[in-house]
Each structure stands twice: as structure tokens, then as C-alpha cells.
């Protein structure tokens, strides 16, 4: 098995060695993908090997990414791998969320159980590993939160210097706190995500930093392990639909790639459909996908949503995401701030917390079922991308009133669970509890 870097443009397909630092094709400007040669791979033997590793205590085997390392054959020296036990995230049954979405049943693959609390860890372990393989010392990313937290942690574990560029005042404090705690050099720029990414892409080569945003093909390689692990947890039973939120669209690109490779090897015999859901105020991919004439991709100049993880108006991975969704016969949906907030509260009442962007999955499912695109009896897995505590202020404001959309419109606390203030009086509290139960 081996890996080479290839231009994603099907009309170009320029090739580059795996040890070349390249994010975009110098010939046509398209993104780069890692193309793996799986010749001679025997699917049943691979499954048996992965099962056997469950009993191992070796660091690579207890990682939910590197347990499947045959799917990431770009590492020649395993000693270079950077792992902090990422992956191994749970797959929950969520009957309340299913009922809300109009489904008979629903499973939630919760990536918020990763070491830094988001799906980014699955990709960052691979990206940081490649940085070490290349002998680089400085890594950087532009982030609305989760990427910065993850990159800072993996850079610290790998003894690399992390440099983070953030939109000033546009990040949840829980995520910023992580980046600061892990020792990252943090630069808040007075611009939005898309403007900063364009700036840093120009800076990268000049100042000698290795970019670990989702345009990095090795990030995508790591993130595809999400769908590999999910199918392994389901004993390789393929769902009808996989639904996930969309921001920069690296995750849908990764999951689609992983599914195609599993089918190529023979581990699955068909592809599930993929649906990606964007926040309505940051939904350029939704608009493009449903446009009658797809002439050119039009970014959202000033993207707005309280779901900060997907507040991205010019997603760099949209060509890859489009290819994967169309290959899988999937679709793209959008959800309003109210729909996301209510879906998030329902997920919480299922005993499963998540950050706002994650809840776009359930909000989108509800709309797709209502439209008849997803059948109520369909086998559906939704991806939750981040932990509840990434943005606790959002939760508090929703349940106590005062949560407002970027437009200023107040978001109704449809499923409010406000705290109650009581005097230090045993009788009154006992009566209140009796009334509450009845």
C-alpha cells in the first residue's frame, strides 16, 4: 500500500510526491487529495486485524484513527505518529431525537467525545503526523474554534509550535480557552474566517508554516476514519443516510472519500446517501447545490450564525464535497437559527449534549423527512461534531431567554428549562417539588 498526492480536478490529475508540501495544484488551482493504492488488500483479513487490535494496549491500536492505519498508508515510520487516543467516539441510540425528526429510529455518532471535544481530532492526528514526517517545526490554522483547539493540542503533543489565526470576537470562549491553554501563539485578526484564510494561505510559504486547515489533504485522510469506525461499530451494516453539518465542508469530503475507499477494497458493497446541512446565514453550498444553473460558486460575503463552527462563507472544500454528495446520491439542506436551537435542545433532552453546529444535523433531518426525501423508516446516522461545553453560554441563553440571532431577532426558547429561584424554606421547597411532580 502507498500514497501519492493528486490534483482533485478530474481533467488535470497532476501528481506530486507524498513528501511535497502542496495544498493546491500549481497547474489549475484545484485542491489536492491523497490517493491510496490498496492493491492486494483482502477485506476479511483487514476486518479480522482491526477486531484483533481491540484487545491491544499499544498506543496506535487504542486510537480510533490509527487502529485503521491500513487506510492511512502515508506513514512509513510509525514512530512519527502523533496520537492522544482520538476517536473511539460513541454511537448513541436517540429515540427522542428520532421522534422529533420524524424518524422511527436515529443513531448519533458523537465526535464531541474526542480528546479536545470535536471531530477535528480525527483529522489533526494525521495532519500533525505528516508535519513530523516532513520534519517541520511550525504549524498553523485559521479557525472559528474547534480547529484551533485541536491543532494546539496535537502540536503540543508533537513538540511543534502552533500558530492560530482567529476572527476577532467571533469565537466561543470555550474554544479560545483551549487554544490558549495548549500554548498556541494566538493572533486575532479583524476580519472574517474567509478573509483570514486567504491571508494565511499567502503567508504560509513565506514564513515557513505548515497549514493544517481542511485544505490539507492529510486532515481529510484522518477524518475519514469517522465513517470507518462508525461502520465497524455497526458491524458493517450500511445506513441509508449519513447526515452531518457543513461549514468548510472538509468533513463531508472526508466521509465520502472514506466510503469510496471502503467500497473499492470490498469492505462495503454500496454507498449510503450523504446529506450535509448548513446554517441558513452561512449557506453558500446549499444555494449552489440547488441552483438551476451552476455557473460559478458564490461565497457569502458576511456569513452569520450563532453556530460558530460553521460560520464560513467561502468553504474551500466545496468541490470535493459536491463530488462526494453527488457520487452518493445525497443532498444539501439548510436550517435557520431557530431550527438549530430547538434541535439542539431536543438532543439535550435525549441525554446527549452537543455544540450548536452539531444540531444542524437533526434540524436538517426534520426538514428532509417532512419533504419526503428521507423515509420515516430509514436507517439514519447523524454526526454530532462537537461537545456541549464548547459553547455553554449559548445553552444558558437559550434556556433562560435572551438568545438572539445575528439579525437581532430573538430566538424562542421552545424547549426552555429555566432554573428556579426558591427561598431557604423547607416547606415551600417541598410544596414546589410536590406540585412539579404532579
Total helices: the number is 15
Radius of gyration: 22 Å
List the strand order in the largest sheet: 4-5-13-10-11-12
Assembly state: single chain
Sheet bearing the most strands, described?
A: 6 strands, mixed
Structural class: alpha/beta
Helix content: 25-40%
Can you name the CATH architecture of the domain at 91-116 and 219-400?
Answer: 3-Layer(aba) Sandwich
Walk me through what this model shows.
With 438 residues, the protein is an alpha/beta fold. It has a domain at 91-116 and 219-400: Rossmann fold, CATH 3.40.50. It is built from 15 helices and 13 strands. The chain has helices at 43-52, 95-101, 120-133, 146-158, 173-181, 193-207, 217-223, 225-233, 250-265, 284-289, 318-327, 337-349, 360-370, 392-400, 426-437, and strands at residues 2-7, 15-16, 32-37, 91-93, 107-110, 138-142, 161-167, 185-189, 210-211, 241-245, 273-279, 331-335, 380-384. Strands 4-5-13-10-11-12 form a six-stranded mixed beta sheet, sandwiched between helices. The chain has a four-stranded parallel beta sheet with strand order 8-7-6-9, sandwiched between helices. Strands 2-1-3 form a three-stranded antiparallel beta sheet. Helix 2 (95-101) crosses helix 13 and helix 4 packs parallel to helix 5. The termini are far apart. The model has no long low-confidence stretch (mean pLDDT 94).
Amino acid at each position: 500500500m502507498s500514497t501519492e498526492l493528486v490534483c482533485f480536478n478530474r481533467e488535470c490529475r497532476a501528481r506530486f510526491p507524498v513528501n511535497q508540501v502542496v495544498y493546491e495544484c500549481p497547474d489549475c488551482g484545484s485542491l489536492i487529495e491523497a490517493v491510496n493504492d490498496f492493491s492486494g488488500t483482502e477485506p476479511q483479513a483487514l476486518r479480522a486485524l482491526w477486531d484483533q487490535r481491540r484487545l491491544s494496549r499499544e498506543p496506535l491500536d487504542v486510537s480510533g484513527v490509527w487502529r485503521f492505519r491500513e487506510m492511512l498508508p502515508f506513514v512509513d515510520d510509525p514512530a512519527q505518529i502523533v496520537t492522544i487516543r482520538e476517536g473511539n467516539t460513541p454511537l448513541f441510540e436517540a429515540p427522542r431525537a428520532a421522534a422529533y425528526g420524524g424518524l422511527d429510529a436515529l443513531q448519533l455518532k458523537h465526535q464531541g467525545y474526542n480528546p479536545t471535544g470535536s471531530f477535528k481530532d480525527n483529522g489533526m492526528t494525521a495532519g500533525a503526523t505528516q508535519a513530523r514526517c516532513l520534519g517541520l517545526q511550525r504549524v498553523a490554522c485559521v479557525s472559528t474554534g474547534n480547529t484551533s483547539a485541536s491543532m494546539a493540542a496535537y502540536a503540543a503533543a508533537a513538540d511543534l509550535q502552533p500558530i492560530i489565526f482567529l476572527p476577532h470576537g467571533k469565537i466561543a470562549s470555550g474554544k479560545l480557552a483551549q487554544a490558549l491553554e495548549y500554548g498556541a501563539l494566538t493572533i486575532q485578526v479583524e476580519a472574517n474566517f474567509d478573509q483570514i484564510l486567504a491571508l494565511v494561505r499567502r503567508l504560509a510559504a513565506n514564513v515557513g508554516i505548515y497549514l493544517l486547515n481542511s485544505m490539507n489533504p492529510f486532515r481529510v485522510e484522518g477524518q475519514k476514519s469517522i465513517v470507518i469506525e462508525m461502520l465497524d461499530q455497526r458491524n458493517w451494516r450500511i445506513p441509508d443516510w449519513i447526515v452531518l453539518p457543513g461549514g468548510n465542508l472538509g468533513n463531508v469530503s472526508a466521509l465520502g472519500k472514506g466510503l469510496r475507499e471502503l467500497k473499492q477494497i470490498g469492505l462495503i458493497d454500496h454507498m449510503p446517501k450523504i446529506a450535509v446541512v448548513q446554517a441558513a446565514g452561512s449557506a453558500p453550498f446549499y444555494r449552489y447545490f440547488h441552483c438551476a444553473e451552476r455557473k460559478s460558486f458564490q461565497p457569502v460575503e458576511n456569513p452569520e450564525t450563532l453556530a460558530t463552527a460553521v460560520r464560513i462563507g467561502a468553504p474551500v472544500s466545496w468541490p470535493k464535497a459536491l463530488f462526494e454528495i453527488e457520487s452518493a446520491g445525497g443532498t444539501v439542506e439548510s436550517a435557520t437559527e431557530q431550527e438549530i436551537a430547538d434541535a439542539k435542545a431536543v438532543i439535550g433532552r435525549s441525554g446527549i449534549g452537543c455544540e450548536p453546529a452539531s444540531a444542524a444535523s437533526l434540524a436538517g433531518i426534520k426538514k428532509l423527512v417532512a419533504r419526503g426525501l428521507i423515509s420515516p423508516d430509514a436507517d439514519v446516522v447523524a454526526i454530532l461534531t462537537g461537545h456541549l461545553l464548547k459553547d455553554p453560554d449559548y445553552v444558558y441563553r437559550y434556556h433562560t431567554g435572551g438568545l438572539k440571532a445575528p439579525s437581532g431577532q430573538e430566538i424562542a426558547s421552545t424547549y426552555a428549562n429555566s432554573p428556579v429561584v426558591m427561598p431557604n424554606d423547607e416547606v415551600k421547597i417541598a410544596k414546589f417539588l410536590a406540585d412539579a411532580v404532579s
